[in-house]
Amino acid sequence: MVSAVIVAAGKGTRMGPNIDKLFLEVAGRPVVAHTWQRFVEADSVHEIVVVVRDGMQSAFAELAEEHGLNKPYRLVIGGAERQDSVWNGLESISPRSEIVAIQDGARPCTSADLINATISAAREMGAAVAAQPVTDTIKESEDGKMVSRTLQRSKLWAVQTPQTFRVEVIRRALTAVRHRGLQVTDDTAACELIGQSVRLVSGIAPNPKVTVPADLAYIELLLRQRK
Ligand SMILES: Nc1ccn([C@@H]2O[C@H](COP(=O)(O)OP(=O)(O)OP(=O)(O)O)[C@@H](O)[C@H]2O)c(=O)n1
Ligand SMILES: C[C@](O)(CO)[C@H](O)COP(=O)(O)O
């Protein structure tokens, strides 16, 4: 059995005050309704856990109703950091789940094909992540003012979601993160702590995250092109 955990319990601070970015309408639907719909369409996913802020349960239940998101789902309360929300989601997937795909609610352009591809790769390797080679040259800076060094671009990948795992692998990896009191910005970073290899699954289509207001016009265009 395959579960999806859609993390949607963030505050969206980079989008600006008093804006719930996941409920902003793009291409005719709220951002998170597009994301959720992709997991309804992905045949290999059997159940969906949506992790939400406390007090938002009825808004998400109404969203599912209104947009016909008809795959079995459960709503769970998130935590202070993304990794806490992922943990809470993992705690409530079915005990029969062997594979879990973790998805940012704020990534509405993820395709069902990409979801299915990460699931196949995770079955084989234990862990897999949607990723694209970077196209800009990436610099490191120690102080945020001056360039310290240039990284070798041919080795660099930007990782996205879905990040998909055998359930026992991600549980073990996130337990290691919690025991060491670390913070990770993505779930595959936790795998590095336990020596678990992660397969890069290169998506051809753009799979951006809604983070700042300037992201919205591009994402609207991508979603309209796909219709
Ligand atoms: N405590 C948190 C933090 C983030 N997320 C989710 O993780 C995804 C990726 O996070 P990001 O884009 O950073 O969203 P926010 O944390 O909401 O944004 P910001 O950092 O600007 O506050 C989002 O779907 C967000 O809802 C979550 O479920 N729980
Ligand atoms: C998981 C992620 O989307 C991979 O790129 C990203 O790390 C989320 O980071 P954020 O700080 O929650 O935006």
UniProtKB/TrEMBL annotation:
EC number in record: 2.7.7.60
Species this protein is from: Pedosphaera parvula (strain Ellin514)
Functional description taken from the UniProt entry: Catalyzes the formation of 4-diphosphocytidyl-2-C-methyl-D-erythritol from CTP and 2-C-methyl-D-erythritol 4-phosphate (MEP).
Domain of life: Bacteria
One MF term in the entry's GO annotations: 2-C-methyl-D-erythritol 4-phosphate cytidylyltransferase activity
Pathway linked to the protein: Isoprenoid biosynthesis; isopentenyl diphosphate biosynthesis via DXP pathway; isopentenyl diphosphate from 1-deoxy-D-xylulose 5-phosphate: step 2/6
Keyword ATP-binding attributed: no
Gene Ontology terms: biological process: isopentenyl diphosphate biosynthetic process, methylerythritol 4-phosphate pathway
Gene3D superfamilies, per database record: Spore Coat Polysaccharide Biosynthesis Protein SpsA, Chain A
UniProt keyword annotations, A-Z: Isoprene biosynthesis, Nucleotidyltransferase, Transferase
Site (Transition state stabilizer): 14, 21
Protein family per UniProt: Belongs to the IspD/TarI cytidylyltransferase family. IspD subfamily.
Site residues, Positions MEP for the nucleophilic attack: 153, 209
Catalytic activity entry: 2-C-methyl-D-erythritol 4-phosphate + CTP + H(+) = 4-CDP-2-C-methyl-D-erythritol + diphosphate
One Pfam family here: IspD
Listed name of the protein: 2-C-methyl-D-erythritol 4-phosphate cytidylyltransferase
